């Protein structure tokens, strides 16, 4: 009986341990698994602290800091989230989550700076750290800067300065360096060390700049720190560096993990000369990764495991256009969120061509952000979120007011803001002061609206989608879901997508970039707008007529128009008449040309054969779908394949009745005019 009772007690204890990983962190040899607490992305509106899981090992730091490993990207993100300010506690306890995480990982000697214990200021940065002895005799120093829940520090993000690195970020980096020096001295650490340093958003670029200073030889104490002993991981870091050598190989121990759907890493503007130190490593993106759907689905599985994981909205992003005469929205889902950012950056660079121009508005913007985001009263933050939620439905009104001038814009925005304050129950604000701050920045906003109304209204309509891209929950889900070598296989240096001028939807490294550049420069194919090419859009009969007409030099056109669906003034009018007169592309028996109908691959082959007057032929029997070629198109397909204009689409198929994309036609025309 006694043995049975003892067995029951042991079973109960085992059950308690299994159900309480937050209390009992499992240490299996050199591997520690447990739970940590962090402030969620929605913590700014009072959502309580959440719990995540982690797996840590000293072995993660046995390799070279220049190498990227999945284990380190994930545990560093855990450390980053734990370094967010703790939600709903007094200032002196803001660092509790960070301290608890490090202690669970086996670190000792925790310290943090005074900014982790007091109210935030414009330029403060909270930093904390701990250390542990490793089996190889080195000391691992872990340094984490607060990257969320920092209220008034948000205003420091717009402190540009006139020269050098972005001033607000440089001030934050200096505070990290000061803390590292102080910590190593206070802890009496000497000899060879390893440095593990992380940051998120503002603290990410601060850690980035601080790490580069150490790479360059900045003294942090009586210690030896080889560059390969630096394990630097930053997440969603904005740009902020003006050093032309910031992508030098020595800085590649700084790994910047970036979700390209997040707007934050795209600012300040590259056009102003800003960049980051080290290498940028991007999570998958729809327009450059052919395996994106499968990778995204794996990420969504992980996101569903994250407490308060937000909906993944970025595949729903919709570029919208504005008709100033009717002030109506017209949906256009052909531009991805990342491609839109390239358009927005271009528009901003036109309105604010350099940081000196931005500097004129710096103080007013800091005061406005400090007033709205720096108040730790939860009702005040609620008001900001209510205001943000009003923007999509108010987009038309805001842009209309901006097109009308500064005064109407200030009236509309001020009323939206004051309505939000009242709805949140806030009464202690100065109406005149806030309106004056809005008025001071109005010239900048009006300039942007009048220059790029489409980009602005798209920003307002998609504001919630854009904001959620910066949520750390999405970041941790991506890192857990990615294949082990996904980030490691990316090339060193800047991973920021570049685009084929002037098209923001044609990545410079895309397979179709060269042929699109060729046909564009030769005047054979134009963009669908001043900045877009729409490479994946289907080619119509009107388009192919226009393309061939342009290739022929756009000769003069005469004669009557035999087509009931082609009108004088249509952009393809001359091209269709020319194509018909030269028997390149003729109409249908019902007297129509059907200019908006999609053109098939076999139709293109016949048209090109007619243009060339015949020529090369090929045996099509090797293609498994050769029997699907229409009888009237066989000669054309034999010519197009024999001349190297059209190739199979894979799986040994020609796909004769499939439509062709604009990118494919660009390649076909490049082959045709060689």
Structural summary, described in words:
The structure is a single chain. The protein has 674 residues and is of the alpha/beta class. It is 40% helix and 11% strand. It contains 20 helices and 13 strands. Strands 4, 5, 6, 7, 8, 9, 10 and 11 form an eight-stranded mixed sheet that branches. β6, α4 and β7 form a beta-alpha-beta unit. α4 crosses α5. The radius of gyration is 30 Å and the shape is globular. It starts with a helix and ends with a helix. 46% of the residues are buried. The N terminus is likely disordered.
User: Which shape, going by the Cα principal axes?
Assistant: globular
Continuous helix count: 20
DSSP strand tally: 13
Rg for CA atoms: 30 Å
Give the helix/strand layout.
Layout: H1 2-19, E1 26-28, E2 31-38, E3 50-57, H2 70-82, H3 96-104, E4 108-112, E5 127-133, E6 139-145, H4 167-186, E7 191-200, H5 202-215, E8 223-224, E9 230-235, E10 254-258, E11 279-282, H6 292-303, E12 319-323, E13 328-332, H7 337-351, H8 355-373, H9 378-404, H10 406-423, H11 431-451, H12 453-461, H13 463-468, H14 472-481, H15 513-521, H16 541-551, H17 573-581, H18 601-612, H19 634-642, H20 662-672
Parallel strand pairs: 6-7, 7-8, 7-9, 9-10, 10-11
Antiparallel strand pairs: 1-2, 2-3, 4-5, 5-6, 12-13
